[in-house]
């Protein structure tokens, strides 16, 4: 029987101590950077609706010279296929864990 792979982000809520440290080490960018990315995407979506691409996220990655390949695959593996999905699938869990500032 196939086991459905849970999105990594779904485990985040339960992580603490060493597991949480490990999660953070494996992230494609720093914790603060990812929080800033979420804030940026959220702000941009107020002005320009999602066009079902990662255009706002990409802009942030470019401006901050982040590793797009790695970040994009992390986002999409966690359900963030486009800017609005990042806000819907990733931001609530992320902010629930790390706060939203
Ligand atoms: Zn979208």
Low-confidence stretches: none
**Oligomeric state as shown:** single chain
Q: Would you report the number of β strands?
A: 0
Share of helical residues: 55-70%
Secondary structure elements and pairings:
Layout: H1 8-12, H2 17-26, H3 31-47, H4 55-63, H5 68-77, H6 83-98
Helix pairs in contact: 3-4, 3-6
Quickly list its features.
101 residues; mainly alpha; 6 helices; globular; binds zinc ion
Task: Write up this protein.
The chain has one domain. It is built from 6 helices and no strands. Helix 3 crosses helix 4 and helix 3 crosses helix 6. The longest helix is centred in the middle third of the chain and has 17 residues. The radius of gyration is 13 Å and the shape is globular. The termini are far apart. It binds zinc ion. Zinc ion binds next to helix 6.
Provide a short characterization of the protein structure.
Helix content is 66%, strand content 0%.
């Amino acid at each position: 029987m196939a086991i459905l792979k849970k999105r990594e982000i779904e485990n985040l809520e339960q992580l603490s101590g060493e597991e949480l440290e490990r999660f953070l080490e494996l992230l494609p960018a720093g914790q603060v950077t990812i929080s800033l990315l979420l804030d940026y995407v959220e702000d941009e979506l107020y002005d320009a609706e999602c066009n079902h691409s990662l255009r706002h996220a990409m802009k942030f990655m470019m401006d901050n010279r982040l590793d797009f390949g790695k970040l994009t695959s992390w986002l999409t593996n966690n359900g963030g296929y486009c800017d609005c999905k990042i806000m819907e699938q990733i931001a609530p869990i992320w902010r629930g864990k790390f706060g939203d500032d």
